[in-house]
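Entry for the shared binder. Reason: the reviewer on the internal report wants the predicted structure included alongside the sequence.
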Amino acid sequence: MKIKKNDIVLIISGKDKGRKGKVIKASPKTNKIVVEGLNIIKKHVRPKKQGEKGQRIDLPAPLDVSNVKLICPKCKSPVRITKKRICKKCQNQV
């Protein structure tokens, strides 16, 4: 997997298409990443104690790696990268 934690990515498909964010978690075994503040889902939590109210919590859900493009820090554009993480546009190490 070419995308790692702390990379800046652009989402190219789905409900958050066109938005940028920072990768906070990457799992190469499942080929998924979690992007900070994007692909938010609502999770309903039941009350744990008597008299306590239930809640709805916003959580970032994992995205497939094929739905994002890495953004080059030098040329600031979404690019395809090679196996050695080199930008194909500006030849910069990503």
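Summary line for the report: The beta strands are 8-11, 20-27, 32-35, 40-45, 55-60, 63-64, 68-71, 78-79.
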